[in-house]
Structure formats: C-alpha cells, structure tokens
Amino acid sequence: MLRFALSRIVMAVPTLLIVAVAVFVMIRLIPGDPAQLLLGDLATPAALADLRAKLGLDQTWAAQFGIWFGNMLHGDLGASINTGQPVLPLVWDRFLISGRVVLVAVLFAALVAVPAGMIAAWKQNKAPDLFLVGSATLLVSIPTFWLGLLLLIFFGLKLQWLPVVGYVSIGDDWKAGLLYLVMPIVTLFLHEIGVLMRMARASTLEVLRLDYITHARAKGLSESAVLMRHAFRNAFGPTWTLIGLVLGNLLGGIAVVETVFTIPGLGRLLVDSIFARDYPVIQGCLLFVGVVYVIVNLLIDLCYPIFDPRVTAE
C-alpha cells in the first residue's frame, strides 16, 4: 500500500509541472499586447515600456517562466492588474464558494446515483431500468445553463420559494446563504446524477456477469446480499474514479452556473478577468483549477485500494 501511494505521489509531481508550463504558455499565446490592451491606443511608448517592464514582458519566455515559477513556489501568483489585490488570496476566497457548491452537489449525486444505477442493473431491461436510464439520459442531455434557468423561472419567479439572483455569504447569514446556494447545487446535482448513474449501472452489469456472483447466488444468498456484499465493492471502483473526474471538471466548468445564478465563485472570477484582460488573475485561476484537478484525482487513486486491493499488487 505504501509503495502504491508513493508511486502515485511521484507521478503527480511531473503532472503538476506540465500543468504549470501549459498555463504559462497558454497565457502567452493570447493574441495582442497586454500592455497595449491595458493602457489603450493612446498610450505613449514610454508608458508601454514601463508597464512591460513592470509585468516582466520585456524578458524572454524562459526568464519570465523562471521568475513566475519561483514566485509560485513561494505562494506568490502576482497581483491583479485592475485591483492590485494579491492573486492567491483572491482565488482562494472564490474557490471556497465554488468548492462548496460542487462538493455538495457531487456528494448528493453520488448518494442517489450509485444505488439507482445498481437497481437499474439488477432490473436490466425491465420497467425500473428503462425509467432510470431514460431519466439519466434526459438529465445529461439538458445543458446546465438551461436547467438552471428553468429552476429560476419555476422556483424563483413562479413559486417564489427561493431567491432569484444575488449571493449572501454563509458567514454573514447562514440561513440566507444556504437559500442562495440551493438552486446552483440542485442544477449540478441533477446534471451529474445522470452521468454517475449510467456509470454505476454499466459497472454493476459487468460485475453481475462474473462467475463469483453466479456462485454466490448458487449458495442461496438473497439478491440484496449479492448486490451489497459481493457486487457493490467491485462495481463502485469505476464510479469512484468518475466521481474524481466529475469534481475536477465541475470546478473548471462551473462558470456557466455561477453566471446564471450570479455567484461570485472561481468560474465567475475567471470570466470577469478574461473580459478585464487581467492576465495575472486569469493565470492564477487556470493554475489553481489545474492543481486542484490533479490533487483530487491523486486522492481518488490513493483511495482506490479500499474498493479493489488488487491494484496495489505490482
């Protein structure tokens, strides 16, 4: 187990380095001169030169990357061009909002999707299976922004049960803060439940065809015992891996949901920074999402032996 964990951690190090290089290069490949965009067309050459020197744009890419990477290792991602606020605290504060929404949505989606997927596999090609698979396909097919708008119209405007737009910090007023997070969480929950349910069904179907399941049934065990004692552990492994991928993907793609519900999360910060040409914040957001994605999937890999101890055998 220790050898398996160390190997996964060592493999994550070059992955993080690749993420850092990719983020740095992508920002540098954006068309246009950042200094010109910030100062406008009427800026003097002297002002442009001063700003380029301040941003380090007058140096080679290798020198820029060395300075940026060294500062990054010390927790310094620069400062916002527009507000002057340090990037790392800004990104972290927004990440806490996005992470709360994503984590709760995926947690509830997994709690519902995994049992539903196992039931669908157990009742393959019967009414429960057809209903669950049809529902999962429908939920996956609906775009998150459209689903969010439907929830806004029905629960916010028609029934007036929940606030439509705005955001209140849970630290300031936890009751109001929770109300503002209900619809974003439900939107992600409904979308991801379809993805996880289909994976749980597919993996359970594969396990139910194995010989040891047939042997368990031949011993006279009930279907519930076969599912929970013998099928669940092996069937949950692929779904557990998908949960890690879903967490990372949602953190990187939550900007649409945050825009619909006006939540000041990490995705909204990234979108606002793109429109404002705030390159240090854009770079910090992309790097942070990439690092979180790698760390989440590393933790998923480290937990995988719980469901299948054979993965540690090397």
From TrEMBL:
InterPro entries per UniProt:
BPD_transp_1_N, MetI-like, MetI-like_sf
What are the TM regions of this chain, as residue ranges? 9-30, 95-118, 130-157, 177-197, 239-261, 281-300
Give the subcellular location: Cell membrane
Q: Which UniProt keywords apply?
A: Cell membrane, Membrane, Transmembrane, Transmembrane helix, Transport
Membrane topology designation: Multi-pass membrane protein
Q: Where is the ABC transmembrane type-1 domain?
A: 95-304
Q: Name one GO biological process term.
A: transmembrane transport
Q: Which GO terms describe its cellular component?
A: plasma membrane
Q: Which Gene3D superfamilies match?
A: MetI-like
> What is the first-listed, main subcellular location in coarse terms?
membrane
Q: Name one Pfam family in it.
A: BPD_transp_1_N
The UniProt entry's sequence similarity note says:
Belongs to the binding-protein-dependent transport system permease family.
What protein name does the entry list? Answer: Glutathione transport system permease protein GsiC
Organism (species): Achromobacter agilis
The uppermost taxa in this organism's lineage are:
Bacteria, Pseudomonadati, Pseudomonadota, Betaproteobacteria, Burkholderiales
